[in-house]
Amino acid sequence: MKDTAPKKVLVIWYSQTGHTERIGRVIGHEWQKAGLGVEMAEYRNLGKTSLSHYDLITIGSPVYYMDVPVNLKQWLTDIPRIDGVPVAAFVTFGGSGDGQHNTACGLLDLMTDKGGIPVGMETFGNMSTFAPTWSLGNEKRILSYKDLPNDTTYSQARRFSADVLKNINSGLSIDVEEAFGMDSLMKIFPQIWFTKLMISSHMIDKETCIKCGICTDKCPVGAIDLEQDIDESRCIACLGCINNCPVNAVKMNFLGKPVYGFNEFLKRNQIKIIEPAV
Ligand SMILES: Cc1cc2nc3c(=O)[nH]c(=O)nc-3n(C[C@H](O)[C@H](O)[C@H](O)COP(=O)(O)O)c2cc1C
Protein backbone atom coordinates (compact mmCIF):
# COMPACT_ATOMS: atom_id res chain seq x y z
CA MET A 1 0.00 0.00 0.00
CA LYS A 2 1.36 3.35 -1.11
CA ASP A 3 0.86 5.20 2.18
CA THR A 4 -0.77 4.19 5.47
CA ALA A 5 -1.19 7.81 6.54
CA PRO A 6 -3.17 9.36 3.66
CA LYS A 7 -3.06 13.13 3.20
CA LYS A 8 -4.57 13.71 -0.22
CA VAL A 9 -7.86 12.02 -0.89
CA LEU A 10 -10.20 11.90 -3.87
CA VAL A 11 -13.93 11.18 -3.66
CA ILE A 12 -15.56 10.79 -7.07
CA TRP A 13 -19.02 9.74 -8.07
CA TYR A 14 -21.40 9.21 -10.92
CA SER A 15 -24.77 10.53 -9.92
CA GLN A 16 -27.73 11.31 -12.15
CA THR A 17 -30.27 12.27 -9.49
CA GLY A 18 -28.22 13.19 -6.44
CA HIS A 19 -28.38 10.11 -4.18
CA THR A 20 -24.80 9.01 -4.81
CA GLU A 21 -23.42 12.54 -4.75
CA ARG A 22 -25.05 13.18 -1.35
CA ILE A 23 -23.32 10.13 0.17
CA GLY A 24 -20.02 11.01 -1.52
CA ARG A 25 -20.10 14.49 0.01
CA VAL A 26 -20.81 13.13 3.51
CA ILE A 27 -17.80 10.80 3.20
CA GLY A 28 -15.60 13.62 1.87
CA HIS A 29 -16.65 16.01 4.65
CA GLU A 30 -15.81 13.40 7.27
CA TRP A 31 -12.29 13.12 5.90
CA GLN A 32 -11.98 16.91 5.79
CA LYS A 33 -12.95 16.97 9.47
CA ALA A 34 -10.21 14.39 10.08
CA GLY A 35 -7.72 16.89 8.61
CA LEU A 36 -7.18 15.30 5.18
CA GLY A 37 -6.98 17.24 1.94
CA VAL A 38 -10.09 16.15 0.08
CA GLU A 39 -11.16 16.71 -3.50
CA MET A 40 -14.70 15.80 -4.47
CA ALA A 41 -16.09 15.68 -7.98
CA GLU A 42 -18.41 14.03 -10.45
CA TYR A 43 -16.11 11.74 -12.46
CA ARG A 44 -16.90 13.59 -15.67
CA ASN A 45 -15.37 16.79 -14.27
CA LEU A 46 -12.05 15.22 -13.43
CA GLY A 47 -8.91 14.97 -15.55
CA LYS A 48 -7.75 11.36 -15.93
CA THR A 49 -4.02 11.78 -15.44
CA SER A 50 -3.94 12.98 -11.85
CA LEU A 51 -5.36 9.84 -10.20
CA SER A 52 -2.08 8.27 -9.06
CA HIS A 53 -1.25 11.43 -7.05
CA TYR A 54 -3.87 10.60 -4.43
CA ASP A 55 -3.27 8.57 -1.26
CA LEU A 56 -6.84 7.24 -1.38
CA ILE A 57 -9.49 7.13 -4.09
CA THR A 58 -13.13 6.46 -3.28
CA ILE A 59 -15.68 6.01 -6.00
CA GLY A 60 -19.47 6.01 -5.70
CA SER A 61 -22.02 4.85 -8.24
CA PRO A 62 -25.69 4.02 -8.51
CA VAL A 63 -26.57 0.41 -9.33
CA TYR A 64 -27.95 0.31 -12.88
CA TYR A 65 -29.37 -2.89 -14.25
CA MET A 66 -27.78 -4.85 -11.37
CA ASP A 67 -24.32 -3.67 -12.36
CA VAL A 68 -21.89 -0.78 -12.66
CA PRO A 69 -23.35 1.69 -15.22
CA VAL A 70 -21.73 1.02 -18.59
CA ASN A 71 -20.40 4.59 -18.98
CA LEU A 72 -18.60 4.40 -15.62
CA LYS A 73 -17.26 0.94 -16.44
CA GLN A 74 -15.79 2.34 -19.63
CA TRP A 75 -14.24 5.31 -17.80
CA LEU A 76 -12.66 3.06 -15.17
CA THR A 77 -11.34 0.78 -17.90
CA ASP A 78 -9.63 3.76 -19.52
CA ILE A 79 -7.98 5.34 -16.44
CA PRO A 80 -4.19 5.14 -16.12
CA ARG A 81 -2.60 2.81 -13.57
CA ILE A 82 -2.90 3.63 -9.86
CA ASP A 83 -0.45 1.10 -8.44
CA GLY A 84 -0.48 0.84 -4.66
CA VAL A 85 -3.21 3.49 -4.18
CA PRO A 86 -5.82 2.40 -1.60
CA VAL A 87 -9.30 2.34 -3.20
CA ALA A 88 -12.78 2.20 -1.71
CA ALA A 89 -16.18 1.93 -3.38
CA PHE A 90 -19.80 2.53 -2.45
CA VAL A 91 -23.06 2.20 -4.31
CA THR A 92 -26.54 3.59 -3.82
CA PHE A 93 -29.43 1.42 -4.91
CA GLY A 94 -33.19 1.42 -5.20
CA GLY A 95 -34.59 0.23 -1.91
CA SER A 96 -35.33 -3.43 -2.49
CA GLY A 97 -33.22 -3.43 -5.65
CA ASP A 98 -30.83 -6.07 -6.89
CA GLY A 99 -27.12 -6.28 -7.53
CA GLN A 100 -25.83 -3.90 -4.89
CA HIS A 101 -23.04 -6.00 -3.34
CA ASN A 102 -21.77 -7.25 -6.70
CA THR A 103 -21.85 -3.75 -8.17
CA ALA A 104 -19.61 -2.48 -5.35
CA CYS A 105 -17.33 -5.47 -6.01
CA GLY A 106 -17.40 -4.60 -9.71
CA LEU A 107 -16.22 -1.06 -9.01
CA LEU A 108 -13.38 -2.36 -6.84
CA ASP A 109 -12.43 -5.00 -9.41
CA LEU A 110 -12.08 -2.33 -12.07
CA MET A 111 -9.81 -0.29 -9.79
CA THR A 112 -7.74 -3.24 -8.58
CA ASP A 113 -7.20 -4.16 -12.25
CA LYS A 114 -5.35 -0.84 -12.40
CA GLY A 115 -3.23 -1.64 -9.34
CA GLY A 116 -5.44 -0.12 -6.59
CA ILE A 117 -5.57 -1.84 -3.17
CA PRO A 118 -9.16 -2.39 -1.94
CA VAL A 119 -9.74 -0.99 1.57
CA GLY A 120 -13.51 -0.53 1.84
CA MET A 121 -16.88 -1.19 0.30
CA GLU A 122 -20.42 -0.17 1.30
CA THR A 123 -23.98 -0.07 -0.06
CA PHE A 124 -26.69 2.51 0.70
CA GLY A 125 -30.39 1.99 0.01
CA ASN A 126 -32.71 4.80 -1.03
CA MET A 127 -35.58 5.53 -3.41
CA SER A 128 -35.19 3.99 -6.84
CA THR A 129 -34.96 6.38 -9.76
CA PHE A 130 -35.98 3.80 -12.34
CA ALA A 131 -38.79 5.93 -13.79
CA PRO A 132 -40.75 3.14 -15.58
CA THR A 133 -41.62 1.61 -12.18
CA TRP A 134 -43.82 4.52 -11.03
CA SER A 135 -44.85 5.49 -14.55
CA LEU A 136 -46.43 2.06 -15.03
CA GLY A 137 -48.43 2.41 -11.80
CA ASN A 138 -46.07 0.79 -9.30
CA GLU A 139 -45.45 3.94 -7.22
CA LYS A 140 -46.06 2.03 -3.98
CA ARG A 141 -42.86 0.04 -4.41
CA ILE A 142 -40.81 3.23 -4.64
CA LEU A 143 -42.78 5.19 -2.06
CA SER A 144 -42.07 2.59 0.61
CA TYR A 145 -38.51 3.99 0.58
CA LYS A 146 -39.50 7.66 0.43
CA ASP A 147 -37.91 8.38 3.82
CA LEU A 148 -34.49 7.22 2.60
CA PRO A 149 -31.85 8.49 2.80
CA ASN A 150 -32.30 9.43 6.46
CA ASP A 151 -30.03 10.18 9.43
CA THR A 152 -29.23 6.48 9.76
CA THR A 153 -28.04 6.41 6.15
CA TYR A 154 -25.76 9.39 6.80
CA SER A 155 -24.42 7.80 10.01
CA GLN A 156 -23.67 4.68 7.97
CA ALA A 157 -21.69 6.88 5.53
CA ARG A 158 -19.72 8.46 8.40
CA ARG A 159 -18.98 5.03 9.84
CA PHE A 160 -17.82 3.85 6.43
CA SER A 161 -15.37 6.76 6.14
CA ALA A 162 -13.96 6.00 9.59
CA ASP A 163 -13.61 2.28 8.77
CA VAL A 164 -11.80 2.98 5.51
CA LEU A 165 -9.28 5.21 7.29
CA LYS A 166 -8.80 2.60 10.02
CA ASN A 167 -8.06 -0.06 7.41
CA ILE A 168 -5.50 2.11 5.65
CA ASN A 169 -3.82 3.15 8.90
CA SER A 170 -3.44 -0.55 9.74
CA GLY A 171 -2.31 -1.44 6.21
CA LEU A 172 -5.32 -3.77 5.82
CA SER A 173 -6.95 -4.59 2.51
CA ILE A 174 -10.40 -6.20 2.14
CA ASP A 175 -11.56 -9.27 0.19
CA VAL A 176 -13.62 -8.52 -2.89
CA GLU A 177 -15.85 -11.51 -3.49
CA GLU A 178 -18.92 -11.41 -5.68
CA ALA A 179 -21.92 -13.43 -4.54
CA PHE A 180 -23.77 -15.64 -7.00
CA GLY A 181 -27.26 -14.31 -7.69
CA MET A 182 -29.71 -13.08 -10.30
CA ASP A 183 -27.26 -10.37 -11.29
CA SER A 184 -24.61 -12.98 -12.12
CA LEU A 185 -27.03 -14.54 -14.65
CA MET A 186 -27.94 -11.12 -15.97
CA LYS A 187 -24.34 -10.59 -16.97
CA ILE A 188 -24.98 -13.15 -19.71
CA PHE A 189 -28.19 -11.39 -20.83
CA PRO A 190 -27.71 -7.78 -19.68
CA GLN A 191 -31.00 -6.24 -18.54
CA ILE A 192 -30.14 -2.95 -20.19
CA TRP A 193 -30.79 -4.47 -23.62
CA PHE A 194 -34.20 -5.84 -22.58
CA THR A 195 -35.04 -2.38 -21.27
CA LYS A 196 -33.99 -0.77 -24.52
CA LEU A 197 -36.38 -3.05 -26.39
CA MET A 198 -39.24 -1.79 -24.19
CA ILE A 199 -38.48 1.89 -24.81
CA SER A 200 -40.05 3.76 -27.70
CA SER A 201 -40.83 7.35 -28.78
CA HIS A 202 -37.78 8.69 -26.91
CA MET A 203 -37.56 12.31 -28.06
CA ILE A 204 -37.50 15.93 -27.03
CA ASP A 205 -40.71 17.87 -27.44
CA LYS A 206 -39.28 20.97 -29.11
CA GLU A 207 -42.31 23.10 -28.18
CA THR A 208 -41.95 22.42 -24.46
CA CYS A 209 -38.14 22.41 -24.36
CA ILE A 210 -36.59 25.59 -22.84
CA LYS A 211 -33.10 24.67 -24.12
CA CYS A 212 -31.60 24.72 -20.60
CA GLY A 213 -29.12 22.02 -21.66
CA ILE A 214 -29.60 19.87 -18.54
CA CYS A 215 -30.39 16.75 -20.58
CA THR A 216 -27.33 17.19 -22.79
CA ASP A 217 -25.12 17.70 -19.71
CA LYS A 218 -26.60 14.71 -17.94
CA CYS A 219 -26.37 12.32 -20.88
CA PRO A 220 -23.14 10.40 -20.21
CA VAL A 221 -22.76 9.22 -23.81
CA GLY A 222 -23.46 12.38 -25.82
CA ALA A 223 -26.65 10.97 -27.35
CA ILE A 224 -28.60 14.24 -27.15
CA ASP A 225 -28.36 17.19 -29.48
CA LEU A 226 -31.14 19.70 -28.81
CA GLU A 227 -31.46 20.52 -32.49
CA GLN A 228 -31.74 16.88 -33.54
CA ASP A 229 -33.44 13.71 -32.39
CA ILE A 230 -31.96 11.60 -29.60
CA ASP A 231 -29.44 9.15 -31.02
CA GLU A 232 -30.95 5.85 -29.88
CA SER A 233 -27.96 3.86 -31.04
CA ARG A 234 -25.86 5.62 -28.38
CA CYS A 235 -28.49 5.80 -25.61
CA ILE A 236 -27.71 3.53 -22.64
CA ALA A 237 -31.16 3.89 -21.02
CA CYS A 238 -29.84 5.65 -17.91
CA LEU A 239 -32.96 7.85 -17.86
CA GLY A 240 -30.84 10.86 -16.82
CA CYS A 241 -32.57 13.03 -19.45
CA ILE A 242 -36.11 12.16 -18.43
CA ASN A 243 -35.33 12.19 -14.69
CA ASN A 244 -33.83 15.69 -14.74
CA CYS A 245 -35.76 17.71 -17.33
CA PRO A 246 -37.29 20.65 -15.41
CA VAL A 247 -40.21 21.07 -17.82
CA ASN A 248 -41.00 17.44 -18.77
CA ALA A 249 -39.95 18.03 -22.36
CA VAL A 250 -38.14 14.69 -22.67
CA LYS A 251 -40.62 12.08 -23.81
CA MET A 252 -40.37 8.32 -23.66
CA ASN A 253 -42.73 5.36 -23.70
CA PHE A 254 -42.03 2.17 -21.80
CA LEU A 255 -44.11 -0.81 -22.94
CA GLY A 256 -46.23 1.77 -24.76
CA LYS A 257 -46.96 3.90 -21.67
CA PRO A 258 -45.57 7.44 -21.16
CA VAL A 259 -42.75 7.72 -18.63
CA TYR A 260 -42.28 10.71 -16.33
CA GLY A 261 -39.11 11.57 -14.46
CA PHE A 262 -37.83 11.64 -10.88
CA ASN A 263 -38.24 15.43 -10.42
CA GLU A 264 -41.86 15.14 -11.41
CA PHE A 265 -42.34 12.04 -9.22
CA LEU A 266 -41.01 13.93 -6.18
CA LYS A 267 -43.27 16.88 -6.96
CA ARG A 268 -46.41 14.78 -7.43
CA ASN A 269 -45.81 12.98 -4.14
CA GLN A 270 -44.60 16.07 -2.24
CA ILE A 271 -41.38 14.36 -1.26
CA LYS A 272 -38.46 16.38 0.00
CA ILE A 273 -35.26 14.43 0.38
CA ILE A 274 -33.62 14.80 3.81
CA GLU A 275 -30.23 16.45 3.41
CA PRO A 276 -27.36 15.43 5.73
CA ALA A 277 -26.56 17.71 8.69
CA VAL A 278 -23.28 19.47 7.94
C1 LIG B 1 -31.58 3.06 -15.33
C2 LIG B 1 -31.65 2.66 -13.89
C3 LIG B 1 -31.43 1.34 -13.53
C4 LIG B 1 -31.48 0.96 -12.18
N1 LIG B 1 -31.24 -0.35 -11.84
C5 LIG B 1 -31.21 -0.69 -10.54
C6 LIG B 1 -30.89 -2.03 -10.15
O1 LIG B 1 -30.66 -2.91 -10.97
N2 LIG B 1 -30.87 -2.33 -8.83
C7 LIG B 1 -31.13 -1.37 -7.87
O2 LIG B 1 -31.07 -1.68 -6.68
N3 LIG B 1 -31.43 -0.10 -8.21
C8 LIG B 1 -31.47 0.27 -9.51
N4 LIG B 1 -31.74 1.57 -9.86
C9 LIG B 1 -31.94 2.58 -8.79
C10 LIG B 1 -30.70 3.42 -8.55
O3 LIG B 1 -29.56 2.59 -8.37
C11 LIG B 1 -30.82 4.28 -7.29
O4 LIG B 1 -32.00 4.99 -7.26
C12 LIG B 1 -29.63 5.20 -7.13
O5 LIG B 1 -29.56 5.61 -5.79
C13 LIG B 1 -29.64 6.43 -8.02
O6 LIG B 1 -28.47 7.18 -7.78
P1 LIG B 1 -28.26 8.69 -8.24
O7 LIG B 1 -29.40 9.50 -7.67
O8 LIG B 1 -26.96 9.09 -7.64
O9 LIG B 1 -28.23 8.72 -9.72
C14 LIG B 1 -31.75 1.96 -11.19
C15 LIG B 1 -31.99 3.27 -11.56
C16 LIG B 1 -31.95 3.63 -12.90
C17 LIG B 1 -32.20 5.08 -13.28
What can you tell me about this protein's structure?
The protein has 278 residues and is of the alpha/beta class. The chain has 2 domains: 8-183, Rossmann fold, CATH 3.40.50; 190-268, Alpha-Beta Plaits. 35% of the residues lie in helices and 18% in strands. The strands form 2 sheets. Strands 2-1-3-4-5 form a 5-stranded parallel β-sheet, with helices on both faces. A 3-stranded antiparallel β-sheet has the order 6-7-8. Strand 4 (86-94), helix 3 and strand 5 form a beta-alpha-beta unit. The longest helix is centred in the middle third of the chain and has 19 residues, at 151-169. Flavin mononucleotide binds next to helix 1 and strand 4.
In terms of topology, how is this protein built?
Blueprint: E1 8-13, H1 19-33, E2 37-42, E3 56-62, H2 70-78, E4 86-94, H3 100-112, E5 117-126, H4 131-135, H5 139-143, H6 151-169, H7 182-186, H8 191-198, E6 199-204, H9 214-218, H10 240-244, E7 250-254, E8 257-258, H11 262-268
Helix pairs in contact: 1-6
